[in-house]
Protein 1
Amino acid sequence: MATYILRRVLLMIPTLIGITLLSFVIINLAPGSPVEQKLQQIRMGGAMGGGAGAGGGLGGRGETGVSKEVIAALNKQYGFTDEDGNPRPIHTRYFIWLKNLSRLDFGESFKYEEPVTKVILSKMPVSLTFGLTSLFLTYLICVPLGVLKAIKSGSKFDLLTSFGLFVLYSVPSLIAGILLRTFLASESFYPLFPLGNLVSDNYWELSTWGQIWDRVHHSVLPLATYMVGSFTFLTIMMQNSMLDVVKLDYVRTARAKGVPEKLVYLKHALRNALIPIVTGMSGILSVMFAGSIIVESIFSLDGMGLLSITSANSRDYNVLMGLIFFQSILFLFGRLLTDILYVVVDPRIDFT
C-alpha cells in the first residue's frame, strides 16, 4: 500500500502541471486583463475627480486618457512585460509562475494588493466551516436514512420519504437558496434568520451557549442550501446499494441460519454496501469549494466562492491560479484518500 501511495503522489506532479498549464492559458486568453481593469478604475477616478482628458495624444496620453508611461508601468508591474518593456509571451509567464510556485509564492493579488496565500487563507474559514459541516451532516443523516429505507423497502415510510426526497431533488440549489432567503430571512415575510457573516456583531458579549446558538442561527439557511443538492442522491444510492448487497449469497446464508433481519442488514450487509458511498468521500478535502459560489453569493458570506467570483470579474490572475492550484491538489489527495478508505471498508481490495 505504501508503494501505491508513493506512486500516486508522484503522478500528481505531472497532473498538477497539466491542470495549471491549461488553466493559465485559458485565463490569460480570456477577454480583458488586470491592466484594462486598472485603467478603467483610473479613468473613472479621473472622471469623478473633475474630468481628466479622455482622448487624443495630448500630454503623452493615449486613447484611454492615461499616459503611456502609466500603461507601461502597469504592464511591468503585472508581469506582462520584462524589465526592458518587451512583451512576455504566455509560455514565459507560465514558467515564471511555475518557478515561483516551487517556493510556494503565488504572487500578489492585483485587487487586494496582498500576497495571494494571505488572501485565500483569510477567506478559507467561512467555506471550510460550511463545507465540512454540510458534508458531515449529509452523511450522518443520509446513510442511516438509506439503510432504514432499505429495511422498510416498499412500505409507506419508504414511499413517503422517496416522494419527499425527489421533490427536494427537483429544486436546484440556487432556487432553494433564493427561496430560503426570501421567505425566512426577509423583512417582507418571516425574518427568522440573519444574513451575512458567521456571527452577530455582539458575538463576543454572549455566553458560551449564546455563542454556540448564534453560530447555529447564522448557519441554518446556508447549510440547508449546501445539502439540498446531494441529500437525495446520497440517500437513494445508499438504499440501492444496500438492496443489492442483501441479494448476495452470503447474506442469504446468514438469513438461513436464523440471524435477525436487522442484524443481517447492519452487520453482514452494511460494510459492503458502504463501498459505493466511499466514492463520494473524495471531495472531503475540496469540499470548501463545492457549491460555495452559489451559497456565498446568495447569503453574502465572505468565503472562497465569493472570492472566486470577485477575482474572475476583476481579472485577478494570481488569485484565480492560486484557487485552482489549491482546489486541484485537494481533489487529487481526496481521490487518494478514497482509495485508502476502500481498503478500510473492504480489506479484499488490494491496489498493489
Protein 2
Amino acid sequence: MRVFDYTQLASYQWDGEVLGLVAQIHEFKGRQEMYLKQKPAVLGKLVEIAKIQSTEASNKIEGIVTTNTRIQQLCAEKTTPHNRDEEEILGYRDVLNTIHESYEYIPIRSSYILQLHRDLYKYSEKTIGGRFKNTQNYIAETRADGTQFVRFMPLAPYETPVAADAICESFNRAIDACIVDPLVLIPIFINDFLCIHPFNDGNGRMSRLLTTLLLYQCGYVVGRYISIESKIEKTKAAYYSALEQSGVNWHEGMNDPVPFIKYILGIILSAYRDFEGRVSLADEKLPAVELVRNAVNEKIGKFTKSEIMELVPTIGRASVENSLKKLVEEGYLTRHGKGKGTFYTRN
C-alpha cells in the first residue's frame, strides 16, 4: 500500500517557477491584511458574489447544474430544492458556509472530512453521505466513439480508511513542524486525496471544499472574496491535465506533484490579482456611471452585465443597468443581442 510521509518534502528541491509563484502569493497575502481592515463594506459584497459563484462552479464541473436565478435563490436560502441536482447544490452551499464560519475549528481528520461529506448529501436521497466508498471506483474518460477507458485506478475500498487517516496525520505533522510551505503542501494533500478517491461520489467537490478549508486555515482567505472554484471551472481542461500528470506512478510513490502544485498556485495568484483589482475599482469615490466605465475598461472583447456587477459590487443592479445604458447612448459601448443573450463591447 502507498505510504504517506510529507516530512520527506523537507529535502525536495522546488524549481524556480514554484518558488516564484509562492513568493508572489506571499506578497499579495501581506497586502490582503491591509484591505481586510480598511474596506469592510466592499468585502461584504464580494463574499456574497463569491459564495454563489463557488457553489455554482464546483457543481458545474461535475455536471450538476440549475439556472442562474435558482442558484441565487438557493444560496440566499429563499427556496427549496426542486430536483436532485438542486439537493446537491444546497448541500454544497451548507458545507461552504460551515467552512466560511468555522474553518478555525475544523481539525484535519478523516472523521471531520466524513462529517463534511455527510452534510454535502444531507438533502439528497442518496445514502452515501458520510461514508467511505464500498465499491471500487475508477477515473474514466469517454472517447469520441462513446467508449470508456480507465485513466486512473484509485485505492481499493479496504485500503481507503487507513489512507485517509494517513494523509491527515502526515499533513498535520508537516504543518506543525513547518516542514514545507503550506502553499506547496496543500496541493500535494489534495492530489493524494483525489488519488485515494475515498467516496462513492462527491470526491471532486470535497477536494475543492478541502482546498478552501486548508487555505483559510493557513491564512490565505482570498477564496472568501474571489471564487477559486469558478477559476478552476473556467480552466477545467488544465485542471484535469495537471491531475493526470501528477497521478502517474502515484501508487508506487514515484509521482511528480509539481504539475498540480503549479496549477493550484496559478489559480490562487490569479484570485489575489482579481481581489486587489476589484477592491481598487470599488473603492474609488466616483458616480456610478464612472465606476462602471472604469470596470468596462478592464474588460477585453465582449462582456455581460453580470461580469460588470462583479467588478463594482458596491453599486446595485439598477445602477449598473442605468450606467450601461448611458454608456451605450454616448457611444462608449455597443449593446449586442436581447434578453439573456445580451452582451456589450467597447467602441
